[in-house]
Task: structure prediction
Amino acid sequence: MTSVPGDRDTAAGSPAIAGAAAAGEPGRRLGLALFLVSAAQFVLQLDFSIVNVALATIQREFGVSAADLQWLVTGYALPFGALLLLGGRLGDLNGHRRQLIAGLTIFGVMSLLAGLAVNAGVLVVARFAQGASAALVAPMTLAAITDLYPEGAARARAMGIYQGATAAGASAGIVLGGILTSYIGWRAIFLVNPPVIVVLVAAMIRLLPADHRGRPGAGTAVRPRLDVAGAVLVTASVAALIFGLSQGQQHGFGAPLTLVSLVLAVALGVAFAGVERRAPAPMVPLAVLTDPSRRVALGVMFTVASVIVGYVYFITLYMQRVLHFSPLQAGLALLPATLTVMATSTLIARRAVARFGAKWVLVAAMVSIGLGQVWLSRISASGSYPVNVLPGLVLTAFGMGLLFPTAAVLATAGVSPGDRGLAGGLFAAAQQVGMALGLAVLATIAAARTRSASAHGLAVNAALVSGYRLAYLVAAVIVACAVLVTLFFLRPAGPSRPDLGPAL
Result:
């Protein structure tokens, strides 16, 4: 049977946290710690999507152009994606708990600033700061789970709950954003964060075990230093890539600024690889990337994220533009998908891996996601939600619920305590960059097909649907490629590697 690779830690993470788990941390306290970490991830995902519903209202109040308005979205996504690796490594150096609490505190303050913004400029600055602070938090939430739970069934279960919270936050943002914007005002979408974060931070200070100060790096008794050159290069490279993809989606991939940004991203990435080979303490140690299972898991997350972002984007547009759903109705229509992801990730994924192995669960998950894209590729201008949308949503969501916790366990298994923040950063960065690339490519393909259909005399709705259908077919092909990569490159774990153990 295929099992998740990695060593069974005698310590579940940083020494303080490990000691708590190894010594028999009371189940209630450990459960509360998992709840707090998952809640932090929920808040990040909530804020990522909650703004989209309020964009039109914000535009009317501040009188900003559509191009400037886009910075409320890009202003969060760009620093978040660019700083994830740096945030992960800083947490390894300074302590996972310490950085998790500090990042959440900054995020809460910036949410308050956004809610009280007197003009669009202040709001954009606050969004940039929110994205940057979120990049300090996201890798630490995943690292905290690997710290709290040793490898095996307990960690698999925790990952399922964590990924369920991620899915819930993304969908809740759309619904809650519509409710708050409609009945209270757009400022409420930001002002809801600070009181929640105050409670979370206070509880984390009380319940999360303290970091071990001066935690040594792997194989050394000296606390490692930050690879500054590597950090600057990789951050700038990812930022240029995300910015270039965003510009390409808005202005075309032949636009000068788009081309310059993408070329710069490649050049900086090559420079980063060169610096890492010579660095005595590299930003991304080679040992973190040598495990083939981890490489496949990161590649799968990158690929599937590029599909999932398009799946949500196009079906939301279809429901609003073609089926004439309100933003709130569209958000509520996505709830079956959210509930499916939550149920699958928390109740089914770990049992499926324990029975069939991680490889076959990943394959089954991607087959389900691919079938969902094929179903959605059959939407029509005269379609309906129950027939054209709902089955595709549920098929895709079922696959997501299987895939996300399984890939997270594979990506973090066997990582030394001193690299767990970085592993969390790599996992989150694979998702974020995949989403940026997928949305840019799929939206460009859909727009090109829509323009062509309009030029050939199709009605507006029919032209839009033709673009969405093509995007879903391309997404299905992408998922099929990821299935082949998994089949050929993810090897069953050897007998020396631990299994997930019995399903809980």
Summary: DSSP finds 19 helices and no strands in the chain.
